[in-house]
Amino acid sequence: MQSIFDEIIPRENTDSLKFDDKIHRFGTENIQPMWVADMDFRVPNAIREAFIMLVVHGVYGYHIKTEKYYNAITEWFHQHHNYSIDPKGIFFTPGVVPALSYLIQALTKQGDEVIVQPPVYYPFFSVVQQNGRKLVLNNLVEKNNLYTIDFDDLEQKAKTSKMLILCHPHNPVGRVWKKDELNKIAEICLKNKIILVSDEIHNDLVFNPHRHIPIASLSQEIDNITITCHSASKTFNLAGLSTAYAFTRNQEWQKIFKKYISSIQVESLNTFGLNAMVAAYEKCEPWLKDLLDYLQTNYNFIKEYLSAEIPMIRLSPLEATYLLWIDFRELRLTDNDLKEFIIKKAGLGLNDGPIFGPGGQGFQRMNIACPRQLIKDALDKLNSAVHSINS
Fold first, then answer.
1. Residues 76-95: tens digit of each pLDDT
2. What are the structural domain ranges in the chain?
């Protein structure tokens, strides 16, 4: 049966970062782009209808954030993640990465140590270092392509650190941190008075039987040391609308962050982004369910294909996100050679593993939020390229 997600939608010549920046990113037009984390699917009809209403109205003046925006967020988290957000502690930002930058600037000082857990979403590194803070690495431990946290190392580094940025679910390794892991992280942060910033932007893209648990929901104590960053952008393909939010129950941090946001004059946001978020949270749950089913089938298709045709290439188990972490180490190529192989031999535009920090060597990240025919085309290209190595 044909799915709405099977439609191949041309994205070239739309000023798309993913499709129209190939020369700059990869040095060639002759690649199939499967890198940056946006989807090749149309947004749900309810969001498009919300846009049409705005367009027809024809006036796009300054916008106020009314209760409907706050209610949409709090109701979504209550229904989907069993967590009650304090509406007074919600702050809108242009994106999750800007939110991380604002939080670092508002709540830490120059030279303070900030922990991240690589391989991890690469802006985490720059957002710490470019704000004059000291980057501290708590490297994940990989065994048989499954990643876990090195808690002994984390406990040592937490003694002198001010903040931990948690990627939950984790990008790029696809883990959904379990309750016992989250409790250990929280215990270490409580013990060492660490500010816990949790990037949970992928928390609605979780596959059965896994379940996302907001780390702030574990206890009142943990809630009070946590700031969560989120957006509807990944879930509903709205990244270009630059609308995100952060929230915390800590009243002191609410005051500090409100003052900081006001001081840098970023309180006004995108009218279309805010209305799209409301439409998504109020009307688009059925679309999301269908999306998750389609992404799960894409993952299963890739897993079966690689097992049958290219078994030397392995996948990390995908518990969440639509970003596949692929292990090419058995090809025994240097990182530069692997990058060149993927671009020039396979004709694919993926994310190069080393940009995600230590542990990224020999890996590539692939975006699988696209029609299955494009997935098959990419795998066929990869299969031919791999088998040409020894031919």
1. 999 999 999 999 999 999 99
2. 4-43+285-389, 47-283
Task: DSSP for 179-231, please give it.
Answer: HHHHHHHHHHHHHTT-EEEEE-TTTT-B-TT-----GGGS-HHHHTTEEEEE-
Among residues 99, 139, 85, which one has the least CA distance to residue 115? Answer: 139
Q: Which two tokens stand for residue 122?
A: 């690469």
Query: How far apart, in whole angstroms, are the C-alpha atoms of residue 148 and residue 320?
Result: 15
> What's the rounded Cα separation, in Å, for the pair 250 and 229?
14
Secondary structure E strands in the chain: 32-33, 90-93, 113-116, 134-137, 141-143, 146-148, 163-167, 195-199, 226-230, 244-248, 314-315, 323-327, 348-349, 351-352, 363-367
Q: Residue 145: pLDDT band by 50, 70, 90 thresholds?
A: confident
pLDDT in tens, 257-282: 999 999 998 878 899 999 999 999 99
Q: Which long-range contacts (CB under 8 A, 24 or more apart) does 152-161 make?
A: 154/115, 154/185, 154/188, 155/188, 157/113, 157/115, 158/115, 158/188, 158/189, 158/191, 158/192, 158/194, 159/192, 160/113, 161/112, 161/113, 161/114, 161/115, 161/136, 161/192, 161/194
Per-residue pLDDT averaged across 302-323, rounded? 97
CATH architecture under which domain 47-283 falls: 3-Layer(aba) Sandwich (3.40)
Question: Is the domain 4-43+285-389 a CATH 3.90.1150.10 member?
Answer: yes
